[in-house]
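TL;DR need structure tokens for one chain.
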Amino acid sequence: MSTTYASVDWSQASCLGTDLTSFYPEEAGLAVGTNRMLRKICAGCPIVDGCASYAITNEQHGFWGGLTPTNRWDIRKQNGIPEPVFDDFLGRIDYAPVEYSTVDEY
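>> reply
TL;DR here they are.
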């Protein structure tokens, strides 16, 4: 079963109360320093696996579950998982039909 946004208890996330814009750094130089800080936040998060699992199939951008967009792209490529498709006109993501239970399987 794939992880959906609704299936993760986001109220338990360690990043609650942080500036969530830092999870979407715009400049490459900022991303390196920011990623170190975000990895520390994610390392102790009780929902890191669910967050990462959700993001692998549903998010192209941002830092999710301790994973950068490049990390998630690598996981998708290694496992034959298609990239999520964002429809700018409709403002939603068309989810790829992928079955998995946790990020540990990758």
